[in-house]
Amino acid sequence: MAELTGRIHSIESFGTLDGPGVRFVVFLQGCPLRCAYCHNPDSQAPGGGRSVTIAELFREIDSCRNFIRRGGVTLSGGEPLLQPEFAAALLRRCRSGGYHTALDTAGSLPLEHSREALDAADLILLDIKALDDALCRQLTGRGNAETLATLDYCEAAGKPVWIRHVLVPGLTMDSGALSALGRFLNPYRCIRRVELLPYHKLGVFKWERLGLTDPLADTPEPSPEEVRHAEASFHSGYRR
């Protein structure tokens, strides 16, 4: 296992947004989705990033033990489930080293490929792009069937889940759609938190640097009032 090799895009040694506490965040390289609001478009190509072994990466993680011992390690991306064997092995190594582990994923791979990695994580941060399949395809280039199957698997397995959903004006901030998403999620006992994340433009410079056209160039960031309205719409359906 120590010599198993994967490709990573980058690391963040003091992350505070990707799971409980202070986290060491590993961004794995490669993603099958092409999200219109992707803030790491340079992480999409599977052959990019740098190659590392489990042993090398765990040494980097463990060098930060004093900072993350009350938090843990999160695998993000890209889409970490695109490298399921590497992700599962790294999660198991971190858990055996005493770290809480989280997997930040859109659940966009079939369960026969992703189950081992899902099982190896303490917490799943599941990004639901859109409940409506057609809108999900518009936003990402793929439907949401695998994502919803991942949520069902976590429910059956009793795996704790934090739901993430990005609020994009003109796309995912429809009041009816948000209320419907809330009603859909309400019965799931595995869900411990729902994070409604306002769309931001912090990654726009990466699209420009890569010579790519930003599909949301004319889309503004939502105002605080719009975010509050979106949250109220969601919680009209999600009553937990």
SSE pattern? EEEHHEHEHEHHEHEHH
**Total number of strands:** 8
Radius of gyration equals 17 Å
Strand ordering within the main sheet: 3-1-2-4-5-6-7-8
Query: What structural category characterises the helix and strand content?
Result: alpha/beta
Number of helices in the DSSP assignment: 9
What proportion of the residues form beta strands (DSSP E)?
15-25%
CATH topology: TIM Barrel
Distance between the ends = 41 Å
Second-tier CATH architecture:
Alpha-Beta Barrel
CATH superfamily: Aldolase class I
The parts where pLDDT drops under 50 for at least 5 residues are none
Major beta sheet summary: 8 strands, mixed
Q: In one word, what is the shape? A: globular
The CATH class name reads: Alpha Beta
User: What integer is the average pLDDT?
Assistant: 94
User: What is the total number of structural domains?
Assistant: 1
The portion of residues assigned to helices is 25-40%
